[in-house]
UniProtKB/TrEMBL annotation:
GO MF term list: oxidoreductase activity; zinc ion binding
Organism: Geomonas limicola
The protein's name: Zinc-type alcohol dehydrogenase-like protein
Enoyl reductase (ER) domain span: 10-323
Membrane is among the record's keywords: no
Family matches, as SUPFAM superfamilies: GroES-like (SSF50129), NAD(P)-binding Rossmann-fold domains (SSF51735)
Coiled-coil regions listed in the entry: none
Keywords recorded for this protein, A-Z: Metal-binding, NADP, Oxidoreductase, Zinc
Family according to the record: Belongs to the zinc-containing alcohol dehydrogenase family. Quinone oxidoreductase subfamily.
Pfam families per UniProt: ADH_N, ADH_zinc_N
């Protein structure tokens, strides 16, 4: 099979991915072998490229894919050869920058029937992240709930807005600063779009915000978040601030929820719930309550991969970029 690989961790300025022929992977007992038709890129891709090396085995990045099942492990009962599927996979296994990939079937679902492979490949990682952060943390959403998404036009923010609108009665506020990102956040369904100076846009007294989902630049907003949240409010965090001092959160008894989508697969914890979430998301798509967040589509080649990595590192990506084989 063809795959885009590298071996030594490196920065974008030394972009060292290359296309290489590798042996076709063999599925284990719980695996599917998937012919990848399209894959999407996420910030985790460049973070792994910058930090992970291998002396012998080539590293294959990519944790978002849609494709066709070519073989099933002998303990798999829920999938058949020919099924059209989508998934995010496991951070510690070879990724989706390849024509073929093996993946634990518990992390996989049938792709939405209404979407082609490129549209479907844009959804898994970000949908899982947003769903786990917002809908698996015990928050009770009502018509009076106000949720703020920091980074409303990014990959996670785009689907977070949609999931909240599809699954809850909450009012969804999103941040965006450029005309094109403001328009995108509104297209995703945000009830209100505000700029980055949260204290100028939102009241710091009164009932406050119930839920803040910080998808980017958490360190820049952390000082003001306790003033914005109501007592017993919730902060969900997915990015990587150097530190996270939450001592000021005590006065309001605020909850902080870290979200890392790969925790379940890395630790073997309830893997089947990710397949369940993707089935729910597919149902939302097929009933026209959620749509793809794909904003750009490229042919799968090294020049396009580098361009996408650059845009992700610069933080200018709107929605998701997808590459097709």
């Amino acid at each position: 099979m063809k795959a885009f690989v590298y071996q030594k961790a490196h920065p974008l300025t030394e972009f060292a991915l290359k296309q290489q022929e590798l042996p076709d992977p063999k599925p284990g007992p719980l695996d599917l072998l998937v012919r990848v038709k399209a894959f999407s890129c996420n910030p985790v891709d460049y973070k792994i490229r910058q930090g992970r090396s291998s002396e012998d085995t080539p590293i294959i990045l990519g944790w978002d894919a849609a494709g066709i099942v070519e073989a099933v492990g002998n303990e798999v009962r829920d999938f058949n050869v020919g099924d059209e599927v989508y998934y995010a996979g496991d951070l510690n296994r070879p990724g989706s920058y390849a024509e073929l990939q093996t993946v634990d079937h518990r992390l996989v679902a049938q792709k939405p029937a209404l979407l082609d492979f490129a549209d479907a490949a844009a959804l898994p990682l970000t949908a899982l992240t947003a769903y786990e952060a917002l809908l698996e943390r015990g928050v009770h959403y009502t018509g009076a709930t106000k949720a703020l998404i920091i980074g409303g036009a990014g990959g996670v923010g785009s689907i977070a807005i949609q999931l909240l609108k599809a699954e809850t009665a909450a009012t969804v506020i999103a941040t965006a600063s450029r005309p094109e990102t403001v328009a995108w956040a509104k297209e995703m369904g945000a009830d209100r779009v505000i700029g980055r100076n949260l204290k100028d846009e939102l009241p710091t007294g009164g009932p406050g915000i119930d839920v803040i989902f910080s998808t980017t630049h958490t360190a820049d907003y952390l000082e003001m978040i306790p003033d914005l949240l109501r007592p017993f409010g919730h902060l969900m965090v997915i990015d990587d601030p150097a530190t996270l001092d939450i001592v000021p959160f005590k006065w309001k008894a605020l909850s902080v929820h870290w979200e890392f989508m790969f925790s379940k697969s890395v630790f073997g914890f309830h893997l089947e719930t990710q397949g369940d979430i993707l089935r729910k998301v597919a149902a939302m798509v097929d009933t026209h309550r959620v749509k793809t967040t794909r904003s750009k589509t490229y042919a799968a080649n090294l020049d396009n991969l580098r361009s996408v990595h650059q845009e992700l590192e610069q933080g200018t990506m709107i929605g998701k970029a997808v590459l097709e084989w």
